[in-house]
Write a structure and sequence with these properties.
7-stranded mixed beta sheet; 4-stranded antiparallel beta sheet; 11 strands; about 120 residues; mainly beta
């Protein structure tokens, strides 16, 4: 079991910035792909950004050029730097760890509890 704890959410004005962090438990963090998802009220949970174990990144079109995902394997941490925030970025943001298919054929996915981001004037 991997525990994920997010932090850094809050209220910010349009055009502002926030930095979300997610700290993972255990000693296999460097082997996981890490994702940030978000879910707005009444909507499905959508993928925002991904960083692989080799630090390749991918972003949803809606956040490209504004958000940056990064990881620090020494600190078991993945961060999401969010700039030029818009009201439509308002959502609960979730961190996710994906082990990928392991040698035993199993794959495990773990979620954090979420952190609220509100973009409003």
């Amino acid at each position: 079991q991997v525990q994920l704890v997010e932090s850094g959410g809050g209220l910010v004005q349009p055009g502002g910035s926030l930095r979300l962090s997610c700290v993972a438990s255990g000693n296999l963090f460097s082997t996981y792909a890490m994702d940030w998802y978000r879910q707005a009220p009444g909507k499905q949970r959508d993928l925002v950004a991904t960083i692989t174990s080799r630090s390749s990144t991918n972003y949803a079109d809606s956040v490209k050029g504004r958000f940056t995902i990064s990881r620090d394997n020494a600190k078991n941490t993945v961060t999401l730097q969010m700039n030029s925030l818009k009201p439509e970025d308002t959502a609960v943001y979730y961190c996710r760890a994906d082990t990928g298919v392991l040698s035993d054929g199993q794959r495990y996915v773990f979620w954090g509890q979420g952190t609220q981001v509100t973009v409003s004037s």
